Amino acid sequence: MKVVVSVGGSVLAPDLDPERVRAYADVIESLADEGHQLGIVVGGGPTARDYITTARELGANEIQLDELGISVTRLNAQLLIAALGDRAAPTPPETYEEAGAAFHRGDIPVMGGVAAAQTTDAVSAAVAEYVNADLLVYATSVPGVFSADPNEDPDATRFDELSPAELVDVIADIEMDAGSNAPVDLLAAKIIGRAGLRAIVLDGTEPEAVARAVRADDHDGTEIRPGDPE
Ligand code: UTP
């Protein structure tokens, strides 16, 4: 199966712990050994936020801050590349074409951001669209897509399944609530819809959760199924 895994920065590198990165690399390697073709996109996490906050106070504009964020996502990607060794393309691809080329060579592309004014959520969906992935997994620090931000609203409930159109509606509602964070952003949701991707949003704190979702479609997160009625 062709699988793109989006590993949130706060999942892979909430702090710099080689054991945590190694555990992710081990899961990725075992899935590759089982014959899955994998592409990985890594987020910036708290390190990106710290750099962005500091540079904003120093007067950087939003595009400069995005470029800073992209640099941190690529640093995090390089940690995973270090752990994967020869299995991974040696540097993070900087375009979808480079990621696709690595994928077709049989290397595992491990990348961060691509261009300003978006996040790695959208990069992951775009890579998945580019390589015609069978599955896109968002390994996040929340256990799925909720009706509202569970950190802000105690009545928020988790969706087991959503159609792409329902996902867009739910995310748009959450994003309109100032201060609320959606587990996947709106641009990513729209790409998932137009590409007809199957996607799973799950808690990726334990990397085995990603392996179970890929191997057996077994997960406690939210599944986005393109064929579902809207
Ligand atoms: P993330 O994808 O980690 O952003 O990229 P995020 O969604 O804000 O982080 P989490 O998921 O909550 O941890 C970090 C930052 O890098 C820039 C953006 O500024 C983003 O906030 N970025 C990333 C881009 O501008 N373009 C990209 O393609 C990727």
In short:
With 230 residues, the chain is α/β, with parallel strands linked by helices.
Description of the structure:
This protein has 230 residues and is an alpha/beta fold. The chain has a single domain, classed as Carbamate kinase. Helices cover 47% and strands 13% of the residues. A seven-stranded mixed β-sheet has the order 3-2-1-4-6-7-5, with helices on both faces. Uridine 5'-triphosphate (UTP) is lined by residues 8-10, 43-45, 48, 65-66, 69-70, 73, 113-121, 123.
Output the keywords:
about 15% strand; binds uridine 5'-triphosphate; Carbamate kinase; alpha/beta; globular; seven-stranded mixed β-sheet
Largest sheet: 7 strands, mixed
CATH superfamily: Acetylglutamate kinase-like
Poorly predicted spans: none
CATH architecture: 3-Layer(aba) Sandwich
- The CATH class is Alpha Beta
Helical coverage, percent range:
40-55%
The side-by-side strand order for the widest beta sheet comes to 3-2-1-4-6-7-5
Q: What is the CATH topology assignment?
A: Carbamate kinase
Shape descriptor: globular
Order of helices and strands: EHHEHHHEHEEHHEHE
Listed once per kind, the bound small molecules are: uridine 5'-triphosphate
> What's the total count of β strands?
7
Number of helices, counting only DSSP H or I runs of 4 residues or more: 9
What's the pLDDT, averaged over the residues?
Answer: 95
**What Rg is obtained from the alpha carbons, in whole angstroms?**
16 Å
